[in-house]
Specification:
The complex is a heterodimer of chains A (117) and B (115). Chain A is an all-beta fold and 117 residues long. In chain A, 0% of the residues lie in helices and 52% in strands. In chain A, 38% of the residues are buried. Helix content of chain B is 0%, strand content 54%. In chain B, the strands form three sheets. In chain B, strands 2, 5, 6, 10, 11 and 12 form a six-stranded mixed sheet that branches. Chain B has a four-stranded antiparallel sheet with strand order 3-9-8-7, with no helix packed on it. In chain B, a hairpin with an 8-residue loop joins strand 10 and strand 11. The chains are: A mainly beta (117), B mainly beta (115).
Chain lengths: 117, 115
């Protein structure tokens, strides 16, 4: 089946620093990837849609300058949390949409737990 | 816009008993429906999906779900649960916009299997 790799799985950083999270589709191409955020014991909230070769589409209320998304290739999207603060601590999960027959299905990475001190 | 309601935040069930996790949705457009499972500190794994065709869909690990358009429901069922089924279960919908839509998730149901 389709595999999405997300790295790192856990990161701890100091307040004010930036953190980059990578999302890779390992055995399929994905022109569209999605970034979600999950607070403890809550559901996933869509943050943005990452489009290969173009600007990301952000959901209402998500700061574009805080959460920078780059989708430079058909297999890689990155999310950079800039000038991170403790309130940015969360579980970030990416997903990728298969361009092939299963184009309506999203495959999820294992998530990145971000802790900002 | 879509919304998903999972009425039960937590469902305790004895091992080998049947279980039903409820999911209702609302949408102004036709949708695709999904159930995902999340184990602690992990990402989401697709259990099953409804895209079109038969309203009864079968997924992995013995789960199945039935799409009921008139009741806007997509309840998840398993005839006999196992300890390993303990996890968080999310119902999700997306618009039929060629797959370019992100998913809208319910708040999740924590399935607790008791020995």
């Amino acid at each position: 089946g389709a595999v999405v790799s997300q790295h790192p799985s856990w990161v701890i950083c100091k307040s004010g620093t930036s953190v980059k999270i990578e999302c890779r589709s390992l055995d399929f191409q994905a022109t569209t990837m999605f970034w979600y955020r999950q607070f403890p014991k809550q559901s996933l909230m869509l943050m943005a849609t990452s489009n290969e070769g173009s600007k990301a589409t952000y959901e209402q209320g998500v700061e574009k300058d805080k959460f920078l998304i780059n989708h430079a290739s058909l297999t890689l999207s990155t999310l950079t949390v800039t000038s991170a603060h403790p309130e940015d601590s969360s579980f970030y999960i990416c997903s990728a949409r298969d361009q092939g027959l299963a184009k309506n299905i999203q495959y999820f990475g294992a998530g990145t737990r971000l802790s900002v001190l | 816009a879509q919304s998903v309601t999972q009425l039960d935040s937590q469902v305790p069930v004895f091992e080998e008993a049947p279980v039903e996790l409820r999911c209702n949705y609302s949408s102004s457009v036709s949708v695709y429906l999904f159930w995902y499972v999340q184990y602690p500190n992990q990402g989401l794994q697709l259990l099953l999906k409804y895209l079109s065709g038969s309203t009864l869909v079968k997924g992995i690990n013995g789960f199945e779900a039935e799409f009921n358009k008139s009741q806007t429901s997509f309840h998840l069922r398993k005839p006999s649960v196992h300890i390993s089924d303990t996890a968080e279960y999310f119902c999700a919908v997306s618009g039929r916009g060629g797959g370019a839509d992100g998913l809208t998730f319910g708040k999740g149901t924590h399935l607790i299997i008791q020995p």
